[in-house]
Design a protein that fits this description.
This protein has five helices and ten strands. By secondary structure, the chain is α+β, with helices and mostly antiparallel strands.
Length: about 160
Amino acid sequence: MSLGSDVQLLREAPFFSAFTEEHLRLIAFSAESRTLRKGETMVEAGRPLHSAYLVSSGELMATPAAAARRENTEDEGRRLGRGALIGELALITETRAYETLVATEPSAVLQIRRSVFRRLFDEYPEIAEALRDKLTESLTDTVGRIRDIGKRLSPQEE
């Protein structure tokens, strides 16, 4: 892919919505394109993640670690297509993959390495601020959804 199309792909990912055009260009310039054959495993559950991956074409099947150990996993997992960002937490901290990711068809991803991303924090502190704001918003939303689920699951008091 070209730098321009990589920037456009990053722009479409909600995770990067607060980033400026300049920031997106820097990330796109430092990212690596990676192609996958049908059936190729990109990431195995439990392995350390040092990068995030943005699907640029094709489709990946994400299977949770527990389901991957069982024999019949066809109906388990989620399909990830263009624009799906995988492992974004790996951009800022050490983490492990909680899903195995396998290409269901020939696919391409943009690999964004933590080491490069962290250097951008040093040079452009506003990136860290934008990311903090985005993660805070996402965490607040997640906590709200968990509370709603908890309310529905808890016994109703009369």
